[in-house]
Amino acid sequence: MKHLLKLILLLFAVSLAANAQVITELPTAGEPFAGFSESLPKPTAKASRATDSEELQLEDGQRLVREGKFDEGRKKYQDVLEKNASSVEAMYMIGASHYQQKNYSSALEWLKLAAGYDSPLLGEIYRYCGITLDDGKSPNEALKLYQRSLSIRKSHFVYFDRALTLYRLNRFDEARKDLKSSIDINSGYVNTHALLATLFFNQKYRVPAMLAAARLLSLTQGNRQSENAAVIINRVFAGNVKEGSKPNSISIGLSFDSPKDEGDFGAVELAIGLTAASSKVDEKDGVKKTPEQAFVDRFSKVVAILGEMEMEETFVKRHYIDFLTEAKRLGHLESLCYQILKESKNEEAAKWISSNGEKFIAFANWAKEFKAAK
């Protein structure tokens, strides 16, 4: 049974990855599934455990669904229900398969049936109802189901799912709060850092956005999320430095509109601008540094400044600043910088990582295991 539940959760997590990539879609007006949460039965029916042979049949159905053979997969699930009418796993999987085909009404019918049973899957069933309702253009109903799921178990998945729904509703502050709750539970879930970096950036939390994007790049590479993270870092790290109106002059534009509730990073933004200007001066003076070395030097200076700041134990400090300062202390910051450059399509950075594979792997392994202070 435990093995099967792990498979269910893994399948569900994988199915969400593609969904999490699109974070700008807004719900249309109206709630096609309004009242769904109130129509759910109380979980009083007794669920039956699947036998070993039924578990094998359910796993076979999952395999078929993963291969895109939805009707064949559902036939396996239905066969289990014919022998075991109170198999919550089979009901759940049928609902999940309909969701994957965007048959939201059918998915909710089966999930509603499964929700009437007292089973270990109840929290996950409520969660899947929430995601189905959100994609079915009923976000307010979805929020009710996420809350039910969280009342059973505080899951980083559910906090992320609810944050995504809130993001789509333009309720950004609430979404940010849920994303931080998700990361507090599991700091290794990449989707959460991706959405939080985007939220920070869109709300003009420029330095926190850069830090969240850097943390994301310590966990993943070579995908759309990592490319977006590199874009955020490069935009913030540009420092708003321009050629001055006079010959051999450089101007630094300062922004005073950054919110302060995640921390006052005005000095850091100034330092980013100054280091950017310094790099331009070095170029003009013929200082011999590769662009990659210059980036590593600049990033290291900014991290050093972050580490010296006196600030409260905020979320950003615990999860992002402490991560970077510890990476610097352990000698891992160079690897992270080259990862940022590689995701920025820098061919020399890709060569460096290839030539320093052992060092980079040590950094990646450490980053996955890093735990923020409570």
Structure description:
This protein is an all-alpha fold. Helices cover 68% and strands 3% of the residues. A two-stranded parallel sheet has the order 1-2. Strands 3-4 form a two-stranded antiparallel sheet. A hairpin with a 6-residue loop joins strand 3 (241-243) and strand 4 (250-252). Helix 5 (88-100) packs antiparallel against helix 6. The radius of gyration is 24 Å and the shape is elongated. Residues 1-29 have low confidence and may be disordered.
Task: Look at the structure and give the mean pLDDT.
Answer: 87
Rounded to the nearest angstrom, the radius of gyration is: 24 Å
Distance between the termini: 33 Å
Largest sheet: 2 strands, parallel
SSE string, helices as H and strands as E? HHEHHHHEHHHHHHHEEHHHHHH
Instruction: Give a count of the beta strands, DSSP E runs of length 2 or more.
Output: 4
Order of strands side by side in the largest beta sheet?
1-2
Structural class comes to mainly alpha
Describe the global form: elongated
Low-confidence stretches: 1-29
Q: Helicity level, as a percent range?
A: 55-70%
Q: Please give the count of helices.
A: 19
Query: What proportion strand?
Result: under 5%
